[in-house]
């Protein structure tokens, strides 16, 4: 089935607005996601792992199937090493706060989201230090700069796979190899690439992979987490929260086995039911197919923007080197004004501002102004691109 098949949902809202904010949250969701969530609420509804009756067992089966699907998608060695939480921010915080100790040093890049930068700054109060390697003005990173930043006490390298501002893809395979050569751990933020670009934890030398379900995995909000690689001893990772797990209830200390060590409290089982349905759809389509579709749309948009006087586009301007996330500004018009006019006059939903990534905007020389961001998605079409280019052309006049 083609991505653009007529039976797939439209990227237009009920009132006709064009949705181009997929870098924040994908919409619409694939067929079957809402139905899977409704079925869970209507037919299962029980608490997984907390009771022995048939509905509780069925709920636990849904959660485990989602765990297996995530593990398979990313080449994770063991589904039990897939730790579910609220989102990718949960996963990153578990990795950083759970792993790092006073005296440890971390290497990151200047293109990171605040989901990485804020925990790192907080950890400096606890004796952790970090080096922010400066990327080029198009967001690209020279891997040798990572190697040059290694210190005797370096323990971890953390990078996003692609910028949430301009889509630039970072060289994670090369960085992963550098981490292995120096016996360092590698944490990858896949917020913008999971489901769009093939990722394999083993071949890409990834030790910790943070993911979220509500972007290009096409699931609902509130379902994400962290995959713990085989080189990590789970006992070396401190839980962010502790409490009931439905296991070892006779003891008042946290279980030390996976995934219970890191999954205290009732999980978002209904969200994981939706995520499972989304993953089944994605696996059927194929990540390569999704990537090809979005790359073609991105190339069409970039080519059209080049031909509009007064428009400045940021990043590599090469669809093969970025995701389908495009950042731009129009003459001297403030991004907030552009976003408002796109919404009110042209029925186009975009995102404006600093996108929770001030360090990236400083790298791209768009700080403090920010930018207008178009997040193209799997259900967008060439017709959507033509409409958007027409709107930008009108505003640029």
Keywords:
397 residues, globular, 7-stranded mixed beta sheet, alpha/beta, Aspartate Aminotransferase, domain 1, 2 domains, Aspartate Aminotransferase, domain 2, 4-stranded antiparallel beta sheet
Task: Please explain how this structure is put together.
With 397 residues, the protein is of the alpha/beta class. It folds into two domains: 33-284, Aspartate Aminotransferase, domain 2, CATH 3.40.640; 287-396, Aspartate Aminotransferase, domain 1. It is built from eleven helices and 13 strands. It has a seven-stranded mixed beta sheet, with helices on both faces. Strands 9-10-13-12 form a four-stranded antiparallel beta sheet, covered by helices on one side. Strands 1-11 form a two-stranded parallel sheet. Helix 9 packs across helix 11. The longest helix is centred in the first third of the chain and has 21 residues, at 54-74. The chain is globular, with a radius of gyration of 21 Å. The protein starts with 17 loop residues before the first strand and ends with a helix. The mean pLDDT is 96.
